[in-house]
Amino acid sequence: GLTKSASLAAATRAGGGGGGGGGGATASSKKLVIKNFRERPKLPDNYTQDTWQKLHEAVGAIQSSISIKYNLEELYQAVENLCSYKVSATLYKQLRQVCEDHVKAQILQFREYPFLMHRNDSLDSLLFLKRINKCWQDHCRQMIMIRSIFLFLDRTYVLQNSMLPSIWDMGLELFRNHIISDKQVQNKTIDGILLLIERERNGEAVDRSLLRSLLSMLSDLQQVYKDSFEQRFLEETNCLYAAEGQRLMQEREVPEYLHHVNKRLEEEGDRVITYLDHSTQKPLIACVEKQLLGEHLSAILQKGLDNLLDENRISDLTQTYQLFSRVKGGQQILLQHWSEYIKNFGTTIVVNPEKDKDMVQELLDFKDKVDHIIEVCFQKNEKFINLMKESFETFINKRPNKPAELIAKYVDSKLRAGNKEATDEELERILDKIMIIFRFIHGKDVFEAFYKKDLAKRLLVGKSASVDAEKSMLSKLKHECGAAFTSKLEGMFKDMELSKDVMVQFKQYMQNQSDPGNIDLTVNILTMGYWPTYTPMEVHLNSEMIKLQEVFKTFYLGKHSGRKLQWQTTLGHAVLKAEFKEGKKEFQVSLFQTLVLLMFNEGDEFSFEDIKMATGVEDNELRRTLQSLACGKARVLIKNPKGKDVEDGDKFIFNGDFKHKLFRIKINQIQMKETVEEQVSTTERVFQDRQYQIDAAIVRIMKMRKTLGHNLLVSELYNQLKFPVKPGDLKKRIESLIDRDYMERDKDNPNQYHYVA
To answer: What does pTM read for this prediction?
Structure first.
């Protein structure tokens, strides 16, 4: 085969690419035969030296930025020829020497720099940076040209010798060793760069392309960036932001401070993109976060979180969450303060009795507010949702029983007929929200008791806004607390349905009577166990009423033998027709009001004592009733002497001049308003009921286990009982059961109990 350098002379003459093949061919048709040279052609004497001279000149011209005498292809070819003749090693050494001499000469301009060591003189520093930058840019441009001429050397000899740096790397190494490793130059450069960055951070405009060029120079000169620049840069950043954090935390309000932190983080991020090395991003951002946020987490929240939450500052809260989420432990501390805020704010709603009338509405508004903040600002973070629920549960039970009672009354106000403010959909939405608050309450039996009492009033006075809404509320309660919780409430509805059927039959029954009477009687038959307990009150009904009661009793017991009817006079009401000078009117009144008004058919004036004798209505109840008739808006009676309260000896006169724009007038039954005694008695009934439930649970457990230690019994009771209970109360009930011989103490171990069959 032909060797690569078979015919050098031909090649150089032709001025073309590397060696071709030679051999003579005559004009006749003899085959062309290619043979090897007998011996290898020699380079002309002095070829190596002359060629190097040429190359040396060219490199010098490049370094001096003057034009090169030879064309580049010729120089490239010369390098290739030298390499082919195994002169590569020498060539590389010579090239390195020339470059090194040139780079060494560059250092002088910086050494002679007259003002090398005043870091504070920023103008001087800038001139120095520009000079070092020009030196670096020139060096890079020159090395690119030199490498393109010596490319063959770079691609063959250098590649085969792994120990040798490429021509470009060799240039970097020389620049690093002779210029940047010079302590004075290096310090001056890095000082200058840091000064520029500091000025930019202080809001001045600086030459960013100069910074970019110098920092990429340091990056290219391996490790100089990491060891000499980055470390100092991060230390200075740390000091700057540590001081800035301390200062601004004093001077600024929290939203402005957080806004500033955000701005700083964006600026530093932009700095990384524009001129810092990408590897600096993590430590730089971490440093800003630590000094401006991490060091002040508690202080920021103590100073400003309550305010942001009070004023519902959505965008600031969003920013707080986002910034705190960046820092280790940030979310955790935000969670704690979030929880504290909810508990403190919630407690102010629940604990103050003066706020009772607005408590439930305020709770609903507060819940809406925190829900909105979680959704918009805290990205629906589960931890914040769960902690919010726990916090609600904590504060709402700080005041036992009252919230439960008020929630029941709130529902009553929404389900009562007068409530025109809501459409069905709105009402449904309100009930759903109420259920969420209801869920947090421990003593749900208190709610049940008051709910039942109000439901009874709504049903009996026909005051329910919508059966659908009532049923919907019941199914929500059933879903939440189980069927046992709502069975009595459902029973009340059943009673009302059944009563309607009974009344249809009673009407037919009355038509068949010889003397049906002129009073139209409607009776609701209530099953004792389902309805609230009403105190029976004996009053003196007139003869017609008594007769009607007897007729109904005969009719009902004829159908249902063995049942006992007890009339609840407190729940009765009637429509009375009356004649005044102005004309006829109708009054919608309670049974007690009816009994009082009917007396005035017999005379025009009666004293308080007369009325009390005749009606038999209990003293307080009667005073309230007379108040409603003589002191309210519709004054059918005139009280003498005038006054708000009914006193002994007051006289009552029929008001013949009574006027009213309506034909049918409802005289507010003051008895339907809940009295404090009623409220207390409802709560007491709940507690009484709880005693029975505790007793039943203890007996149930003991019957099953036969023998049990005190602590195990108590923990089992906590599992079974649905309401909050104190260990002391349980102890009392256990003692009571021991006294009543349901269980006994162990003879040897007083903490052990045995069931007594």
So the answer is: 0.75
